[in-house]
Amino acid sequence: MWYQNHQNLHPVILASEMHERIVTIHPFIDGNGRTSRLVMNLILLQNNYPIANISGDTKSRLDYYNSLEKCNLENDKNDFIFLIANYVYKTLIKLTS
Question: What are the Cα distances from residue 47, in Å, to 7, 11, 40, 63, 70?
Fold first, then answer.
């Protein structure tokens, strides 16, 4: 329902929000992160944006987890949205160069 009521948001913000919401409620026993990233990238692709390919190196994972933790503890989603937007931008640069 939230998704349907917020489709007027910028696609990167909408995708980031859906990712954060799914991973925060933790609806499954396993695979919540993978599922939330798949939903995020589906939203991006449906809106003609490239996927957000989140790096698996230690620094990138820490940045990812820290920004999600800030969403939950401080109710501040700006760092997470910026992180996802940056990954989308990096993918776009790779595709156009």
Answer: 11, 6, 11, 26, 27
